[in-house]
Each structure stands twice: as C-alpha cells, then as structure tokens.
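seq as requested:
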Amino acid sequence: MTEIARLTNVSQPTVSRVLNGNQNVAPEIRERVLACAREHDYQLNALAKGLQGSRTQLLGVLVTDISNGFFADLTKQIEIEARKNGCSIILFNSDYDPVKEQEYLDVVRRYRVDGVLAVPIRETSAEWQEYVKKLDVPIVSVTRRAENLDSVYVDHPQAGAMVAEHLLARGFERFLFIGKEYDGKYVGFRQAMAGRAPAAQTANLVYQDYAQLQDALRVWLQASEARAGIFAGNDIYALQVLAALRGLGVSIPAEAGVIGFDNTSTGRYLTPQLSSVSQPIELMAREAVSRLMYRIEHPGRHPALDLPLQASLAARESS
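struct tokens:
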C-alpha cells in the first residue's frame, strides 16, 4: 500500500480505505488507486487483515456431504450470493463425521472468516450447541433448525406430511421411511400416517451398505402383499432403493412406490423417473447469506432468526 500511495500521489490511509471498500473517497482518486493496484497485481492478504481485526471478506461454508447433488447446488447458490456481497467462500465437507465437523470449525476460526454458513450434523445435540458458542464469528444454520441460532431451512415435518398425503392418495397401503428416526421428515411422515393408516404399518430403516438395504427390503416386503410406499430421506437413498427393488423383481410403482428428497437432477432422467421433494435452494441461499451479512454488519445481541421455507413435491413415475 505504501508503494501504491507513492505511485498515485495520495496518502497511505487513503489507499487503505479504497482497497478495503470504503466509499468515502472521491471517485477519481478511488479509480486511480484501483487502476494502480490492478496494474501492479496487488493482492490483499486476507489472513493478515483478519489478524488486524478487519473483515477478510471470507465466509466459511460447512456442509455434510458435497457428493450429494443437493449440497453441491446449495453451495453454488451460496457462492453466487456471497459474491454479490463482495465475499468469497471457503468450503468444508464434514462427511457426517462430528470429529471432522469440530476440526473444520477450528479451521474456520484460524482463517478469521467473517461468518459461517453451516449444515449441522446433529443440530439438537449438546455438543454442537456448546461448540457453536465458542465461535467468535456469526453463524447461520442452513437446511436445519438449530435452537437459539439463526436458521434458514425447509419445514421437514411439513414436507414429510406432504409425502404421506401423496402416497395415501395414490393408494399405497403400508409405508417405510429410509433414514434416521429423529429426522424431521420421518416425524411429519409418521404423524400424518397415524390418523389415516395403522401406526404399525409405518416403519423406518437405517442401513450401512447396499447389500444390507436389499436384504432388509426383501424381508419387509415379504411380510405383506399390501402395496408399499417408500419415502427415502434423500435422493441418494432413493436411487439405491430403486436399484434394490429392481434387483428383487418388484414392479414400480405397481407394487412399491418410491419418493426421494432434494429433487436432484439425476432422478429426472431415470426409468422410472423419481418422485422427489424439492427445496427452494436459491431462496434458501439468498436468505441465509443475507442474514449472515446482517449479523456481520450489525454485531451484538439480536433475536435468532427462525425462517422455515415451504417445500414442494415433484410427483413423477416412481409414485
């Protein structure tokens, strides 16, 4: 900055204000400084800037599984919104591993990012809530509702209830959820079924690998000849269910229907095309980044934002 100040014949504090985005500089001076910075390929040292207590224009983004097309799409939209606000992102993938999650949050602190957008593994756990308190930067929970934390998410119980109504309307008689019992999608799914179908006919399945999934489905399907409706916690699970059902010789959707969650592009090109719950990714990213920027620009105590968004069902051939 000293060299740019000498070359442009302005003071170093003025150069600093220009390069840090301060608008209280005359336009002609600002353009002269920026032109000189471009000519000499000046690069801001974001980490050093962060250590000085200034903003780094970096946002940490922590997701659970970047191989899931939904999180890839969400990250892309977050990056678009971050750039609109003059920020770049640093991406971390926890792979549903709580140890990695904590390690990456430590890295985020070391990088002195301005804020964090996180998809928690278990947002209700005491460990997560305690660890978040240690962060000295704002954090917004995306896709999950986290207690006492700004949260932008889809109403999972509402989405699960919507799937239940769809399967009931299509004439399915017994029901299975693929995923964790505590998942909000299953909670809404089970509650909606309770008043319309015998509770004993609604179950959930957690599996470790494809072979285990196929064996469990075989046993579950053989227990009754009633038409089966299967709701998968995400599209990856749903694709594996479809493959397992085909391997078992089950006709889709005549004998068993399948609905996924996230409406990733892959499901649209299968045979049969996959029915799936669609989340408003662009709106979610826009609201989450907007809230994080507000927190960054307005430090202090503010009531936590609780913003549930509505999902929609893309009904296709599989149901």
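The longest strand covers residues 58-63.
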